[in-house]
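Case study 2.
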Amino acid sequence: MQKKMRTAILAIAAIMSICAVFSGCGNIDFSPTAGNSQKEANSDTDVSSDEAADKNEESEAERSADSTADDDKAESSAEDADSKPEDAPAASDNSVYTPTLNDLASQLADPMIYTASNWINELKSYSAPAVDHAGYLFRDINGDGTDELIICSADDAYPNIFAIYTQKDGKVYHILDGWSRNTYSITEDGKILNVGSSGAANSIFGVFHINESGDDIECEDLYFTDFIDESEEKIGTYHNTTGMWDVSASELVSENTDVFTEAVNKYTPVELVPTPFIDLAKEVVEKTAYLTITGSEDIGEPADYTEFNTGITENGVRIMLSADKAAEVILVSLELTESYDTFDATELFEAEISPDKPILATVEFPGSIPKYGVEVTDEAGTRFYSIDMSGYDGSIELNRIAVDNVDKARG
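Prediction:
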């Protein structure tokens, strides 16, 4: 996994002025001249009549011309109206992100839930309630006509980006995650900037963009600082375009950090104005069934329950799943994928869970990687949890996980 970092945020100010143009009219005197004879007056009257006739003809011609021009304008406007829908780009369908937004709102709103997202863990640890400090917005980062979903802090004018999702063919792709020591921002021209640090000598600045296939990011430039000799007394700047923090595969471009600083200061992030999660979270919480899990000694004797018979008798741990709302729960077996951060799941048993009817099962923990989990479906959507044993005190806990594929065949 790449190590990444955050850019210094620069403020952008834009000032626009509007000018108004005013025009005026002079006064025209239509009164007759004094001292004219009757003949002159009659003559003037005849001339005036002729002039009036001429003017009337001119006025008719002008009105006809204006009418024709208006007709032409109307036809032109109709043609423009007909052509605009064809020329205008189709609006991005952001409804594809609704399940993702609901899931994130559910995680942020629940103070007890564990999650695989570092940024949510951090917010819940240091900025509780986490839902007050995060927001979301839609923005077409790479100009392909499709909006990305950006999750960021809701506290600053130039907030840290926690996550970016994109879509392709109706599928959502999670292309990056950020946290306090690995932050992201974007530029007006579609660059994704990454700033991070793992120590006083090790900082990183990367410039990325969404790849041509539209489902991931790829590196343009990566600068990082590291020791340049075995004495670890001198820090230099390295560069590559692979996005990997690897001294052996990078070029030493400076025996100090000046080049690194210049690279960071070269870009200006755009201002982001997110919608706070708080209102969406209130809606989602009303629809979400939150599960709790207890093990062996704490189960007691529930009056009514559903049994998942896994067939495990030796080295098994008795568990009970409870919920504060009705939902559908499926016990699944889990297999870690090659990426080591997602799972494939196979469905085993399905049942309805409610506050008055928990689910009991016996599971085992053959190692640190969870073997069992649950799929929960309610009004807010579907999500997955692994069933884990704490390495600290042996307690049983649920952790939210990402699942790539689900085998619907049940044993």
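Helices lie at 38-87, 98-109, 118-126, 258-265, 278-287.
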